[in-house]
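Hi R.,

Here's the chain you asked about this morning:
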Amino acid sequence: MRHHLSVFLSIGWLLLVFGMSIVVPMISDTNPRQPVSEPLLSPAQHPPLGTDALGRDVWTRIVHGGRISPGASLVATIITVLVGGIAGLIASSMGGWLDRVIVWLSNSFLAIPGLLLAMLLVAAMGPRLLTVILAVGFGAAPGFVRLSRTVFLQIREQNYVTASIALGANRSWIASHHILPNTKNQLLSLATTHYAWAFMGTTTLTFLGLAGDPSIPEWGVMLNAGRAHIIDAPWLALLPGCAISLTILAVHRLGAWLSEME
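And the predicted structure, written out as tokens:
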């Protein structure tokens, strides 16, 4: 019962985040970047969740952050899955020297901490949200190469693949007709887990101020801004911090559930 309840709550939280981020901006004309009242109003006052140090509506910024933070993490995950998955598929399908080169490159990049690799890319391209997305996406790709390659090799060793090779099927046909269709569940589970990592990486980099614009309604940016008022206005850090934590936990639980369904 607890197993199903945790999955239900995880899905419910994610639906709430994405649903509110879509609906509320359409029915509310409050600008998340502009002051609406006095600064540092408590959640018991108007607006519903109070205001930040500049008088901006915290509720509006949290809701709009439900678009930016998860959306940026989703794009980063897509980059990771595409780059890492294609490289892993090539390595497992071609074998030989190409496989060794791809594995060696992946191991070399894995020797560098992902956060450090992302920060180096941000430093080279300049602080902005697009750079953060690219940094997180490409920074996680080497790890996905290794994981996806292992999944692809497991399928490649199956008897029906061996039979196809014996009948003269080429590597591209085997990859498209045997390997990819039979690994979609495992890849979906890996992608879900990497989404949680991408979410954590994205909000970490924006928390460090690498998004460039401090006025954007993004949860990592909001958490960083709330640090200065942790005593007199703790909700400024607590609310985005809870949103980040709950989203990561929900995605991890969803990924675990998907892996159990394989």
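The chain has a mean pLDDT of 85.

Let me know if you need anything else.
M.
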